[in-house]
Amino acid sequence: ETYVMGLHKTEANMRVAQKENEAILLEDGHGLRYDGYDPNDPESMIALSLRQNAYLDHSLLFSALVQRQFKDRVGRPDRGV
User: Fold this and answer.
1) Mean pLDDT for each 10-residue chunk of the chain (81 residues)?
2) Which of 1, 6, 65, 81 has its Cα between 20 and 30 A from that of 75?
């Protein structure tokens, strides 16, 4: 059995990421270091959301490979991803 954080968790995950990323604004030169990223700017959050969804596809592919290895090499029962 292999788990991936699915789309049903995306909204809550984005709120947590936004809260955590607010500390970026306290750093000197944050505009240069983070390429203009501002956690309070809707455009930045849209870009973050697009990246998160792109990586979700990769996570699903990787988890399927992991699950197949558990089944084929280790002999664990396949309960899916």
Assistant:
1) 74 77 79 75 83 82 91 86 78
2) 6
